[in-house]
Amino acid sequence: FVTVPLLVAIGNAMIEIGQLAAESKDVLDDSATATQQTERLTNLVASMERNARNYVTLKEGTTSRPSAAGLSASPTAAAASNTLALYESDQADFDESVSKMRVLPTDSAIRDQLARLSSVSKDVHRMLRTGATEESTKERFRLLGEAKDAVANGMRATMNGRLETLQENTRAAQQQLLWLCAALIPGTLVLV
What pTM does this model have? Predict the structure, then answer.
């Protein structure tokens, strides 16, 4: 009869270890998503900046040269339009990545930086549509880079914290299971 409560406790410890295994899968999935989306944001910001700067340069080139009456749009204007379309495609992908990161477990500082990322990227898009300058574009992308770095560092710290907590909980459950198994030995000897 002494062994029955110990066996129940061992069963509970095994269930807890199973729950920790499921939690570890969630943490690893979130970590992989955060890493993938952070890398994707880095690439998209670089592409968006390149396209924005090209667009500003091309747009300035079309406004400095008058077009001939009756002629179709200049090649420079068409290139500027294509570059803006590339920027808008990157912007849509950027928004998608930010949305995927918003559903991950984070703290308020990371959520604030994600909101800042969205706000600054939309601000750049508005500026491009309304007549951005090279200097204003450069400044906005500096802000965008800072927010992206803050999100990346915050996500890394959050995931590391979750993994450390998981390791501690797993270690404690393993230790508990070991002690319970050790406590079964005297009870088993009595029965024999």
Answer: 0.77
